[in-house]
Amino acid sequence: MSSGMRRLGPLLLAFTVVLAIGRAECPLAYHGTIENTVQKLQLDWYLVVALIRVESKFKPTAVSEVGACGLMQLMPETAKEVASRNGLDFSHQMLFDPSYNIVVGCTYLKELMQRYQGDEMATLAAYNAGPKWVDKWLNGSAELSGDKIAFQETRQFVRKVLFYRRLYRALYSIPRTLFRPSTLMA
Question: Which residues are catalytic?
Answer without folding.
Answer: 55
